[in-house]
Amino acid sequence: MGVSQIHALGRNRKFFVNEETTYIDSENIGTEGIKPAGTDAATVLNASFTPAQERKVRDDARSSRSALEQITGKKSASWTVESYILPSGSQGTAPDLGPLFKGVMGTETVSGGSRVTYSLNANQDLGSFTLTQFFNETFMETLTGCYVNSMTISIAGGEEPKVTFDGESSGLYIPTSSSPNTTQANAGETFATVDGGGTAATFNVHTGEGKNFKPGSVISVATDTNLIVRSVSGDAITVDSSITFADDDDVKPFVPTETVAGSPIAGILGSLVLDGASDPLPITSFEVTVANNNKAISDEAFVAGTSDYVPGFRDVTGSLSIRCRRDLAIEIGRRLDFGTQSIVVTCGDTAGKKLIIEIDDAEFEVAAVETPQSDEVVIPMSFRALATSAGEDEIVIKFE
Hints:
This protein has helices spanning 98-105, 182-186, 330-334, and strands at 14-19, 41-42, 46-57, 70-84, 106-111, 115-120, 129-135, 139-156, 162-168, 173-177, 192-193, 198-204, 218-221, 224-233, 236-245, 250-253, 270-274, 283-291, 295-297, 308-310, 315-323, 340-347, 355-364, 378-385, 396-399. The chain is mostly beta strands.
């Protein structure tokens, strides 16, 4: 904590992703599904939520040139999550970020004691989930109705493999904080507190502290935990169950104890095999992106945010780079034939701690060779993964 006040610190972030049984937006915020469970936790490098609320200046005729009033329009929110690739450590057990892998790929197949496979499908329903991040009992933010637009897996010489997901949401953004009002803070209070005592589902916090909470906030009141705020009216808070509270009980954001698994894969363990070669290719970097090109349904009248989304045509693209050794220089001209080659990337060498990426048909694009003044010539090899006529098989991701 700071010298005089607790600060929200990114390094203390607790992150949760829980799948929704129904798409949650502002119309059904009372759904119990937004409570994260301990098993919904995941360890991430970083996460960012970007909410937006449209406010349009009223532009009808007036005698003044000044803006006098604004009109509330649509709300939206985007998000990004970056993490090490973190296999669970046990074969046949999905990684903690499994809902995001499933959300971008479409299908999760668990083969107990063997592997977890993420493959593509043609379905429109790629699911949705709620994302929550919590900082030092000071601040928590939640996005509901989230879906994955794209995923990028990146590997660079000697660095730990990483994955980045980005997407959008219903636009329902729920900030929850715990600030005391000025009087309480001057009296040494650290959190918002109850004003009065009793037993009920509705209680008051001290004057001005109701702004800490929004419908859908998950809070604790003294020893009562995991309470969903149903409504906020001024400083009156209504939660989803009756509780017994006393004057000056702390009221603050709540998440359960995390249950997480997995360790980063060392960047020195693994290989990339091109076109079924007997020897791995000595790459300096590799990257692959799966983009769903989702279309948000956010243009409906009388709807505040995004009510649904529809996946578009999928793009699976990537790149790798190699030094221009004599035995590899053939790749420069080979690209002009527009043939396809298979790519198999293996990260890790221990059962339960491996990621395997399989691309059967990668067509490499024509591109300039990097010819520096004095260092080694580098061949950049950008590609697009193609499917068979049946479709939905341009990439497969396995944890095993």
